[in-house]
Structures are given as C-alpha cells and as structure tokens.
Amino acid sequence: MDTLTDTHAAALARLGYALSDAGRARILMRLRGGEATPSELVLMLGASKQAVSNQLACLRGCGLVVAERRGRNQVYRLTQAALADALDALAALTLDVDPDCCGPAGCTCR
C-alpha cells in the first residue's frame, strides 16, 4: 500500500482504540483462534457478562468482530481472516517494547 488515506488512518485508529484495552485485546486474540460465545469469553476473561458484552459491542462498532445467532446463542468471530495475521504480527512486535513504558500510569518514555 503506497498511500495511507484518511479512511485507512481512521481504520488504524479504531484498531488502536480496540487494542488499548487489555480485555478487548484478549478477546481479539482469543477470536483469532476461532469463534466463541460470550459465555466462553466470560470464562476466559474472568469478567462479568456485562463487561464482556460492553467489550464486544465496542469491537463490533469498530468493525473487528461480527456476531451470528445460532439457536439461542450468539457466536462471535473476527470480521476478516487477515485480522488474525495482523494480530499475530502485532503480538510479535510487542516483545521488543519496554513493558514499563506505557502502563496504566501513563507513558514514561518521554
């Protein structure tokens, strides 16, 4: 991709926002391995149903996940297979990042 358009920049900003929360990032990393129900995500995260529901709503709004009704269950998956590859690449890059830099207290790398 030679040119980064405003549309591309907005999409990257949404991805960055989605990944800025550890719960949302964990949901995305889980879904890169395949679809999951909210109940499965609640168990994985150890979070409340409401918290997971809020995170999934955000990820849907960002265009990163979709839900499909199957009987009484909603099943979530990534919107694009390429997103799983991108998440894997981003996860690999984090190994070179100072873990003490941009924590909850803010950026200390100034």
Automatic annotation (TrEMBL):
<dbReference type="InterPro" id="IPR011991">
    <property type="entry name" value="ArsR-like_HTH"/>
</dbReference>
<dbReference type="InterPro" id="IPR052543">
    <property type="entry name" value="HTH_Metal-responsive_Reg"/>
</dbReference>
<dbReference type="GO" id="GO:0046686">
    <property type="term" value="P:response to cadmium ion"/>
</dbReference>
<dbReference type="GO" id="GO:0010288">
    <property type="term" value="P:response to lead ion"/>
</dbReference>
<dbReference type="GO" id="GO:0097063">
    <property type="term" value="F:cadmium ion sensor activity"/>
</dbReference>
<protein>
    <submittedName>
        <fullName>ArsR family transcriptional regulator</fullName>
    </submittedName>
</protein>
<dbReference type="InterPro" id="IPR036388">
    <property type="entry name" value="WH-like_DNA-bd_sf"/>
</dbReference>
<dbReference type="InterPro" id="IPR001845">
    <property type="entry name" value="HTH_ArsR_DNA-bd_dom"/>
</dbReference>
<dbReference type="GO" id="GO:0003700">
    <property type="term" value="F:DNA-binding transcription factor activity"/>
</dbReference>
<dbReference type="GO" id="GO:0032791">
    <property type="term" value="F:lead ion binding"/>
</dbReference>
<dbReference type="Pfam" id="PF01022">
    <property type="entry name" value="HTH_5"/>
</dbReference>
<feature type="domain" description="HTH arsR-type">
    <location>
        <begin position="4"/>
        <end position="98"/>
    </location>
</feature>
<dbReference type="InterPro" id="IPR036390">
    <property type="entry name" value="WH_DNA-bd_sf"/>
</dbReference>
<dbReference type="GO" id="GO:0003677">
    <property type="term" value="F:DNA binding"/>
</dbReference>
